[in-house]
Amino acid sequence: MEKKDLSLDIKNKKIWGLFLAPLAGISDAPFRSICLEEGADLVYSEMVSAKGLYYKDKKTEDLMKKMKKAEPLAIQIFGSDLESLEYAAKYISQTDVTLIDINMGCPVSKVVKNKEGSALMKDVPKAYQVAKTVVEASRVPVSVKFRSGFEKDSLNYLEFAKAMEEAGVSFITLHPRTRDMYYSGKANWDHIVEVRENVSIPVIANGDVYTYEDIEKIKEYTGCSAVMIGRGAMGNPWIFSGKTPSLEDRINTFKRHAQLQIEFCGEKRGIMEMRKHGAWYFKGFHKSAQFRNMIFTAKNMSDIHACLDYLRVEEEI
């Protein structure tokens, strides 16, 4: 089966760029669009269930929707059932996507108990089968995102990386924390360095990147092929450009984000989604606590504008 070309030159290992991580409940089409407008090179969908696609679940399929056809989009899937994974890979790769990413790092209990996500790190042969199945079924490149290990006493990231390379994935992304750390503690960038030095495929660095300066640091420290940014982009899409936004920049981008959100899922749901984003966009500003209380009761764009006007006046006082 002939593969589509990836716009980033993976074959020649020239894939340097800034990627928006797959963030559950956050990296939907409107947020991805905002991040692309601010300089992201590749954006990832929220985690998509392979079984959900196999059983044609509409909510699962909705996670793959784009705002624009030209969006450089990676669809991240999770699962351990080979039949549904094969179906998902064939189905997704027939759509207009850039690549398929396999989640082997999610620490959430309901995923782990089904032997999916980071649970696959406890069974390298199974993880290999999962990756190989998706690679062979897909018309687009395939990558894998994983952690340093399931627990601090079982750091098998290097063995795991080599298995993924052997399975034929185009590149790998390492979040150098263990499953039992979740998102606490410090990401160990030394693990990224070790993986990069021991595999021939590109390695994407992820973990503890909250500012543009962190991007430069992790790039220099690890020699990675690209940087994936997760929580550092929440309320801060400017991290992809290094711009320091003014209050008006934040207000204008937030309005743009809200308009896209309403266009994507309707006013009622769109405004509800923007409540959490509002807390992130304006965290740390004068009267931000009062602003947060106001925006969490917003029901329409008029309410959103009133909240923003309040914040603007308070900052001028």
Characterization of this structure:
Helix 1 runs antiparallel to helix 10, helix 7 crosses helix 8 and helix 12 packs antiparallel against helix 13. With 317 residues, the chain is α/β, with parallel strands linked by helices. It has helices spanning 29-37, 50-54, 58-62, 82-93, 109-112, 124-137, 157-167, 189-198, 212-222, 247-265, 267-281, 288-295, 301-316, and strands at residues 18-20, 42-44, 48-49, 73-78, 99-104, 142-149, 171-178, 203-206, 226-229. Strands 1-2-4-5-6-7-8-9 form an eight-stranded parallel beta barrel, surrounded by six helices. The chain is globular. Strand 4 (73-78), helix 4 (82-93) and strand 5 (99-104) form a beta-alpha-beta unit. The protein has two domains: 18-240, Aldolase class I (TIM Barrel), CATH 3.20.20; 247-316, Non-ribosomal Peptide Synthetase Peptidyl Carrier Protein, Chain A (Orthogonal Bundle), CATH 1.10.1200. It is built from 13 helices and nine strands.
Helical content band: 40-55%
CATH architecture of the largest domain: Alpha-Beta Barrel
Q: Could you say what the CATH topology of the largest domain is called?
A: TIM Barrel
CATH superfamily of the largest domain: Aldolase class I
Largest sheet: 8 strands, parallel, barrel
Secondary structure tally: strands: 9
Tell me the number of helical segments per DSSP (H or I, 4 or more residues long). 13
The percent range for strand residues is 5-15%
Based on Cα principal axes, name the global outline: globular
Q: Mind telling me the C-alpha Rg?
A: 20 Å
Cα(first) to Cα(last) distance is 64 Å
Number of domains: 2
Instruction: Describe the strand arrangement of the main beta sheet, using strand numbers.
Output: 1-2-4-5-6-7-8-9
Unreliable stretches (pLDDT < 50, length at least 5) are 1-7
CATH class of the largest domain: Alpha Beta
The average pLDDT score comes to 93
Q: Helices and strands: which structural class?
A: alpha/beta
